[in-house]
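Question: Send over one sample?
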Amino acid sequence: MRTIKIALAAALALSAFAAAAQTIKIGFITSYSGLNGNLGPYMERAVRLYIKEHQKELPPGVKIELITRDDTGPNPDKARQLAQELVVRDKVNLLAGVVFTPNALAIAPIATEAKVPFVIMNAGTAVITTRSPYIVRTSFTLWQSSYPLGEWAAKKFKTAYTLVSDFGPGHDSEEAFGKAFTAGGGKIVGAVRAPLQNPDWAAYMQRVKDAKPDCLMVFIPAGKTATAVMKNFADLGLKDAGIKLIGPGDITTDEELPNMGEVALGVITVHHYSAAATRPANKQFVADWKKEFGQNETPNFLSVGSWDGTALIFEMIKQQKGKLDAERSIEIAKQWRFDNSPRGPISIDPETRDIIQPEYLREVKKEGGHLANVEIETLGTAVKDPWKELQKKK
């Protein structure tokens, strides 16, 4: 009889635990193949590392299930299909991730119709957050880096040439830099948009060299593409011709610097993150990353956008004790601040649901025998998206 009572008590306890347990499903869409398919793992690793280190902070009985999907690069039709399946079949509580703007724009209507919060951890075209009230972005906009870059460049150079990839972020970078550079008295002597897939960088670099600008501002998707640009810049003698290579931080992303070699030395960028930053939170982040994934592995800005995006999701979960309501989650996001981000203090703009963050002027230098993006000046400690700020004035 005593054995039966013990078994019954155990069964009731198990039943109570099951009732209290809550699984938060995150539909994580990013690029594991196709153009820049090497970037997706940097995002997923950051999410899983944050979960591993902070899961004890979740309410009792709450766990997170990360459901990953490969959008195969810039492929809006595939991204839309994956988002639909995650919402309808897998019944996810949130959508997250996304490297490329076209994919984020394709997912936006799904998030709106299903009323599922969508935390964008990379895609950087300014307009994205206007496409759904359920979008929150923890990464950046190209305006945030390219506009202050143009302001800085106008104080150093008289003429500039712009070379960007022909899609949303490239257009934003071109417009933001050009607007700030010309407002500061500079002159754009040439502008070209290169195809996203398989561009002939040598031909473009020759056109730049012939134009003889003081500086060349480049935006291309981070990663292997940036290395190809860097090598063509050197091989065609633009550096020797006195043309200064500058751009948003995508062109010298941290994990690619070893592949670029010494041609990257002296390149100037504006960006919100560098793995070489000496902030205590960043030093801890980089140390934890290397401990988890290997001493030769380095996190990049996609990692940080994903790390901070996961911190935001945790805040949503904690404040709602594991029972997520979409409207309440977005309201929590609008009030969110994270002073301990590896990039420095960040927050979400309650009007736009976009990131507010520091922006740093950086130069590629050698530190400890390795190339690093060394932060040499803080251009702003709480930079909002300049595009949206300019829209308000119209």
Q: What stands out?
A: The radius of gyration is 22 Å. Residues 1-20 have pLDDT under 50 and may be disordered.
